[in-house]
Design a protein that fits this description.
This protein is an alpha/beta fold. The protein is 40% helix and 16% strand. The strands form 4 sheets. A 7-stranded parallel beta sheet has the order 3-2-1-4-5-6-11, with helices on both faces. Strands 7-10 form a two-stranded parallel ribbon. The structure holds nicotinamide-adenine-dinucleotide.
Length: 351
Amino acid sequence: MRRSRKIEQTRTALVAGGAGFLGSHLCEGLLHDGYRVICVDNFLTGRMENIVSLVGQARFRLVEQDVCVPLELGEPVDRVFNLACAASPPRYQADPVHTTRTCVIGTLNLLELAASNGARFLQASTSEVYGDPEKHPQREDYVGHVNCTGPRACYDEGKRTAETLCFDYLRADMADVRVARIFNTYGPRMDSADGRIVSNLVMQALERRPLTIFGDGRQTRSFCYVTDLVEGLRRLMNVDPNPGQPVNLGNPREFSVLELASLVRELTGSRSPVKFLPLPQDDPRRRRPDIGRAKALLGWSPEVPLRKGLLQTIAYFARLDEPALESIAAISSESLSSRAGGTTDRDRGWA
Ligand SMILES: NC(=O)c1ccc[n+]([C@@H]2O[C@H](COP(=O)([O-])OP(=O)(O)OC[C@H]3O[C@@H](n4cnc5c(N)ncnc54)[C@H](O)[C@@H]3O)[C@@H](O)[C@H]2O)c1
């Protein structure tokens, strides 16, 4: 492995998938840290509006390209963040073969780029590598329970193979590779139409449509706010020595989908009814990260409570400022609290 150039000298970071939800926040954070940023994206699910404020900045370069094609950048890089891959099930299932190619060939191309540049590499892996987990909460040493033939397999197995490649490059000393297993993350710049649970419920509530819940709504998820997640990625990329193991990044507070829907209704002041639909195949029943490793190695844990993060997300989707939304939420919360005999957010665990 070629030695990494000192960060103070060149500071160039490539973000594959940089026009997506997480990638655009990461690009912004890296620019703020003083990096020159190269965003590589094929705009499959990424959007120009996510990076419009960055395009034209002197230290920002946009390369419109599919990562399944080897990259020729014509300049050296010090850091490679691989976030390229649609993350929402309807989007990654729309062309499952391309999803597998993105996860496997795309990751391989970016690992090669990191190896030839002596750059550090960070892979955005996922809690989906645990499948429908039989162990709870999920620790990194749990090997998972994944269906390799189901409709989610292109993503789950693609990401698992990508992890295999990452650790093979690391073991062979070909690149300094780190792997983040990201759990459900939400926030501004999610695509309102890509079928993820938070954006779905928020848009339905704002548009006064029924809130759709798959199954009975008692399945659980943990929700991490985007700024917390990006901070975790930056720490994992920068930590020394290399952890040499995957690291879970997510919020360990667990909520049922029904609880999430109820909070969304409260914060939007919506009276939309809830509509129950059949549970999709292989939908995980429980999800909660054990973040002991991230705490120990990175000194990281999420800080933004669900209520605050949701308010910011709702403000983004409603194109309202936060104070306007706070007042809606306050009115709605008062009326709910008087109906529920004074139950507070803290009682419900949302604060
Ligand atoms: N957001 C989450 O909750 C979450 C959870 C677990 C893992 N992740 C991982 O984090 C990464 C980013 O997720 P996100 O939520 O920002 O999703 P996103 O869909 O908003 O972003 C993915 C980006 O990758 C780009 N892309 C997809 N295929 C590509 C290809 N072949 N070549 C070049 N660009 C390509 C898309 O255009 C998009 O800009 C993904 O790898 C995802 O698997 C996200």
